[in-house]
């Protein structure tokens, strides 16, 4: 079953969460790379807007508290999203203030918006929603509507669909069959799935709107955009095959095995297979668990252990290490059944992707397009020697961010461990 897709921008929600976490009672603005990403109602009323520099926001409101975004998702955000997901087919937060959601049908649009606002009552001062048939169109429409709301030029009606407005929310429901016409008039800045560098390429070709892309012959577009050309044309036509990931309503991810012939122990190979299945299920959600539970039954009292972590665990190695630790004090015996349950599943923390040596094997396989563009940009700006593959320096070792980050970074750079002015990478035995 597939229903309409929505995208919501929850103004003030992330500022509310940061203020609660830091016990701040005054106005708050949340910064990302020195730029305002979200702000509280009090700051908004003083003219602070997302996109402002931190210094400009401070000038507009000297008593403003500037805080940098926290990584990951807070427990309260998790609880709010769980309530928001009631009645939805799926809810996928991009971060703590922007969400995708899927509705059972068009007749549920007013009810869905009401439920979302109810879950956010007192936590977001205004929400902007757009509902369409695909993720791409829904987000493009929401960003367009948000830009107009932020500038105080929000339309009262729309020829492309139904527009709802009150003091708490603004929502646009694009009528089926009208989406292509709506997209044609949007500027290239709303091609949000296309990397900024390639949007710049389109502008340099003289294109000004998403509709202009459809006037360019496919071969010419491929010359300038490469593999992206096909996707860009589909997005311009309102097509997008990506579904909303079902992060909420939350369902535990479970691995279960019953043994016809009891076994005396669990090998690392068996656990690796189990973790592989779990990690594949998490990858579909783009999420990771905050809680892990193992349970063994056999000719011994039930063995059950649970571990909670501080941020969603998404890497295979980290999951394996936690599960092995949970099994450390297993007294032994004939095992009849074994299960792993992952619960409190939140969107996985988005971390910067390193320029991994594994993406440049000896046979010179082609790099992923996004990484290739990033590398070319760095080399153009800082020279050809600015980026190199670190196989010799690291020994091909990767760092699981959730578990070993602090210790591994100390291994990379710690004056106590340095020898002769050079820091050597240490490896675990």
Brief write-up:
The chain is an alpha+beta fold. The chain has 16 helices and 13 strands. It starts with a strand and ends in a 17-residue tail after the last helix.
Write a structural description.
This protein has 429 residues and is α+β, with helices and mostly antiparallel strands. 36% of the residues lie in helices and 22% in strands. The protein contains 16 helices and 13 strands. Strands 5-6-1-7-9-8 form a 6-stranded mixed beta sheet. Strands 10-13-11-12 form a 4-stranded antiparallel beta sheet, with helices on one face. It has a 3-stranded mixed beta sheet with strand order 3-2-4, sandwiched between helices. Helix 4 runs antiparallel to helix 5, helix 10 crosses helix 11 and helix 12 crosses helix 13. The longest helix is centred in the middle third of the chain and has 18 residues. The protein is globular.
Topology:
Elements: E1 5-11, H1 13-22, E2 28-32, E3 35-39, H2 41-45, H3 54-60, E4 65-68, H4 75-84, E5 90-95, E6 98-102, H5 109-119, E7 126-132, H6 135-150, E8 161-165, E9 169-174, H7 179-184, H8 196-204, H9 210-213, H10 218-225, H11 228-236, E10 253-263, H12 268-285, E11 287-298, E12 300-308, H13 316-326, E13 335-347, H14 369-382, H15 391-394, H16 401-412
Parallel strand pairs: 2-4, 7-9
Antiparallel strand pairs: 1-6, 1-7, 2-3, 5-6, 8-9, 10-13, 11-12, 11-13
Distance between the termini: 50 Å
- Average predicted confidence as pLDDT: 83
Report the C-alpha radius of gyration, rounded: 25 Å
Q: What percentage of amino acids are in beta strands?
A: 15-25%
Q: Which segments are poorly predicted (pLDDT under 50) over 5 or more consecutive residues?
A: 350-367, 391-408, 414-429
What coarse outline follows from CA principal-axis ratios? Answer: globular
**Residues in helix, %:** 25-40%
Number of strands: 13
> Can you list the strand order of the major beta sheet?
5-6-1-7-9-8
Number of helices: 16
**Largest sheet data:** 6 strands, mixed
- Strand-pairing-aware structural class: alpha+beta
Order of helices and strands: EHEEHHEHEEHEHEEHHHHHEHEEHEHHH
